[in-house]
Structures are given as C-alpha cells and as structure tokens.
Design a protein that fits this description.
Layout lengths: L1 H8 L4 H13 L3 H5 L6 E2 L4 E6 L3 E6 L2 H8 L23 H16 L2 E8 L2 E9 L1
Antiparallel strand pairs: 1-2, 2-3, 4-5
C-alpha cells in the first residue's frame, strides 16, 4: 500500500491525487466522489454526504486523513474536486481511464499488485504495475 500512496502523491495535480486517495479510502464509487460538493462535507460531525442515483443519499465517515486531504484542495467553485479549466467545474476522467481503473486497478489491488498512474493528455492511464 505505501508504494501506491507514494506514486499517487508524486502526481503533479493535487486535486487528482486527492481524488484517487479519497476513492480508495472511502470505498465510494468514482461518480459519487467526483460529485461531492463542499456543502456535502461536514467537518464538525466528520461526515460526507454521498449522492447515489439508486440509493439516494447516505452519510459516510470523514476520516481525519481524508479531511486533511480535502482541506488542502482549492475552493474554486462548489465542487470538492474542482478544475480550473473544465467547463463543468470538476475534474473529468476520460471514460477509457475509468474503465481501465475498474478493470485493472481494483482487481490488481486485491491481488497485492499496485499500479502507477501517469497523467497523459486529459486523463490518467495505467503505465506499469509494481509487485510488492
């Protein structure tokens, strides 16, 4: 696990690095995390309101580590994982990237193989796997 966190923390975009860590640490779906707004973060009671098209809303714990990650992000607009250039205001992972993450990352994570992610054009893509 330390290898994965080190690789993600070395990324140039801190918003994407925080997004990937939040995905892993909360267990929420990619779209649920991407859809987080600042109003969904309750630092007083340490909770995050997650919106789901099937289940509606639910509140999950906001751990101190995730809270610290989110506190470092710029508050450009209403979105937690905001973009300075995207028209919608949030970071926009390419569809192929999310498919690759679902296919490769999570299955390899369970097999104790970690993936290094690298920024290329508009998205993150899988470039190598490191075996621990």
């Amino acid at each position: 696990m330390p290898v994965w966190f080190d690789a993600v923390r070395q990324q140039q975009n801190p918003v994407i690095a925080a997004y990937l860590q939040t995905l892993l640490l909360t267990g929420a779906r990619a779209g649920e995390v991407l859809g987080l707004k600042w109003d969904d973060i309750n630092t007083e009671w340490r909770g995050m309101t997650i919106r789901d098209k099937v289940e509606g809303t639910r509140i999950i714990p906001l751990t101190p580590f995730v809270a610290q990650l989110l506190a470092t992000l710029p508050k450009r607009n209403e979105w937690v994982f905001s973009s300075a250039v995207a028209a919608g205001g949030t970071i926009v992972p390419c569809v192929s990237t999310m498919s690759a993450l679902k296919r490769g990352f999570w299955s390899r994570l369970l097999c104790s193989s970690w993936l290094v992610l690298k920024r290329a054009n508009c998205a993150w893509w899988l470039v190598d796997s490191l075996h621990i």
